[in-house]
Amino acid sequence: MATSSTFPGKEISGNDVYQVFSLCYARLARNARQNFTDGDVHDGPMPLDYNLWILRNAHRTVLVDTGFGARAAVERGRQLAIDPVEAIARLGIDPSAIEDIIITHLHYDHAGNMDRFTKARFHIQEAEAGFATGRCMCDRGARAPFDVEDVVTLVRNTYADRVKFHDGDATPLPGIGLHAMSGHTPGMQAVSVMTPRGRIVLASDVSHFYANFLRKQHFVGMVDVLAALNSYDRLVAIAGAVDRIIPGHDPKVRRLYPRRIFEGVELTALHETPTAHDLGQLMRLDDFEPVHCP
Questions:
Q1: Where are the extended beta strands (E) located within 136-274?
Q2: Which of 16, 29, 228, 278 could form a disulfide with 174, with the two C-beta atoms 3.0–4.6 Å apart?
Q3: Structural domain of residue 255, as residue ranges?
């Protein structure tokens, strides 16, 4: 595993090409039966990684999602491996200087900490904001994955002219595409990014695991199952290959791609060539060799 004292990315001089790193900031032990609505699966350990993503070149640093913080961790019985905002700062990236952050959806593990990025403009689907502030939140089950403080923070940023609402697919920045893919939530969006190895797609919770889009077995907690299945097809169509799709919570990502350490922060380099291409291994729900967050 390579180490470095300087976080890279600025050497990418192209305006529309990025190095892309995932940061695993927490991990949750679960079994396969807890992750799928289809009960006919082999039950065994199937943990979740909690990730956010850093896109970087000489012109800008963009975040995809903001993770959750200490308060949410305590309230939801989660344990942070590293505070995501502190980790970003240790990489030499000033959180207060980041200008653009993409929020894939407003669930607590993707939209916490927004108040700690004091300059950023947040990119989100209009449908997502409407869902998180509308009548469906009167239902306890529907609102459970949302954190009211995160939603209020988004509203405050809206009043401060710091939210960019998108209605469907968009290209908010050079080399970065937003792709509306409802299913997990009505305003769920994936993010495509041009990298030195070509375009990759950060699926976030469009597909939590490789198994979701490879097997068409959807994750628990979908608001629209049919839309989710259609979104799996769109992921493949946009990416063009399995090794260009990055699931949002699958620990296998850290097994397939090179890991790098910068200033004691462990990241996964998604712009680099995967170290394995065993699709049969990806299809096996029971193949989850433990890989621990730093």
A1: 163-166, 170-173, 176-180, 189-195, 198-204, 245-247, 259-262, 265-269
A2: 16
A3: 7-283
Residues in the chain: 294
pLDDT tens, residue by residue, 210-259: 989 988 888 888 999 999 999 999 999 999 988 899 999 999 999 899 99
In the structure encoding, which two tokens stand for residue 288, read together?
Answer: 């989850």
pLDDT digits (tens, 9 = 90+) for 66-81: 999 999 999 999 999 9
Tally the domains of the chain: 1
List the CATH number of the domain containing 116: 3.60.15.10
Q: How far apart are CA 156 and CA 112, in angstroms?
A: 14
What is the value of pTM for the model shown? 0.93
* Tokens found for residue 223: 């608001």
